[in-house]
Amino acid sequence: MISKRMQKSLEEAISIRDIFEEGKKLAAIYGKENIFDFSIGNPSVEPPAIVNDTMKEILDTQAPLALHGYPSNVGHPEVRQCVADYLNGKYAASYGVENICMTSGAACAIALLCNTLLDAGDEVVTFAPYFWEYKSYVETLYGKLVPALCNQETLQPDETTFRAAFSEKTRIVLINTPNNPTGAVYTEESIKMVANVMREMEEKYGHPIYLISDEPYRKLSYGIEIPFIPDYYDDTIIVYSYSKTLSIPGERIGYAALSPKMADVNEVFAGLTASMRYMGYVNAPSLQQKMLLKCVDAAVDVSVYEKNRNLLYDSLTQIGYECIRPDGAFYLFMKALEEDDWEFCQRAKKERILMAPGKAFYGPGWVRISYCVPYQIVKDSIPAFKRLYDSYQ
Ligand code: PLP
Asked: Where in this chain does the record put each Aminotransferase class I/classII large domain (predicted)?
């Protein structure tokens, strides 16, 4: 018998994975090429060759016991130094080895930070729509996720809802740019607003409020600059992941970078180190850490996603759908053609189009289209989107 807390959570979950599983069933009936499966964010571009080559080289040349043994909880020092050097070189920052903690992807880093910073009842503000699992990371630790609805015309953070989301219990603001599920890249103006309001709230409530910047899609942007968040707010922790940048989500590697300028940085780092054990992660995978020594700056060919984005956005808007042009990640947020986005997704299935309902992201009335699929699938899906649109006229 599972816990009541877990039971409730299972009942509430709108599982995008269920849609994905359904897609696999449909593919078995109609053939994979005839299903337009835009339900899940699994990268579709090959990892850069250097990733596999480096792993092979490491396996062939390094002593197995040392390679596969436990590294320290926060990671191999030379790998942490390599990440610090990368950040310092790229953003003229001053990270040291003592600021970098290697993690099993971004998910692990956010969960560890929640464990480190939250007491029961503490609050985490995030902009909605948001990545569904934020709620799980926060509520597993008896915290409360407080959504601040984005401007519905631009999908940028909105100052009024943001201000209203704060209370004396706010400990963390969690942002994600480029964004899942909307594909929006927060502008410099938005980031400045976030930083100004947060400084004001720190002053008002008399304690640090940490800004966690969840950045798995930082390198997936299309001709647009993404502000480096620690330049705008001192109490910033970057959470980074190589899942999407290198197309290796199954390998579980990322890091948390604590700004050297942030309040109580050493104490937070010590908490993070202990959380790694307390929460059962122990350490990030050793082989994947070492791979980064050669691949820290590598990235997939982003033009493949950009080509999908262009075709999809242009075609859908031409048909008459209302969408916000995504500047990053591999998601497009589109208005559903009826009030209930879940029903809209059900109806789309008749055209063999699979999408994730906005409700799953605290974005009712919208749907998320994950365009990390082969270009041909995007191309072939357009007539199906047109039939779906026409069926509502
Ligand atoms: N944050 C966001 C916004 C994501 O979209 C994802 C994965 O899709 C994650 C975190 C988790 O990524 P990781 O594979 O690094 O744990």
From this structure: 34-371
